[in-house]
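thought: user wants a sequence for this fold. calling inverse folding tool.
action: design(structure=
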């Protein structure tokens, strides 16, 4: 696992989801109660970007069919999604947001 810098802290406003791409994978970042969280940005029910959804009370709502996911765990809180979104460990230091991510293998 590697810690990769994915955003400047100031770019992550409270309750405003943003999308970043890390090693070709879309990741949704959101700050809630002062802490950054990260989930895979693709809804597990049907292709839609969670970062385009509505965020409230610690959950992101998919803009396509309104499935909601807890940003702390990735667990669906409301269907039609039943599979959790991938959750990533996030940290913040020196004005930067870092994501724990598997390193790509180099051939």
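)
observation: tool returned 107 residues.
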């Amino acid at each position: 696992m590697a810690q990769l810098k994915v955003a400047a802290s100031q770019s992550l406003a409270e309750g405003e989801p943003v999308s970043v791409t890390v090693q070709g994978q879309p990741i949704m970042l959101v700050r809630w109660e002062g802490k950054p969280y990260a989930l895979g940005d693709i809804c597990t029910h049907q292709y839609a970007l969670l970062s385009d959804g509505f965020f409230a009370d610690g959950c992101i709502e998919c803009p396509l069919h309104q499935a909601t996911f807890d940003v702390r765990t990735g667990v669906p809180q409301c269907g039609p999604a039943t599979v959790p979104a991938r959750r990533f460990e996030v940290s913040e230091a020196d004005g930067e947001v870092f994501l724990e991510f598997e390193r790509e293998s180099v051939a």
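thought: summarizing for user.
answer: Here is the designed sequence. Residues 2-101 form a domain with the Rieske Iron-sulfur Protein fold (CATH 2.102.10.10).
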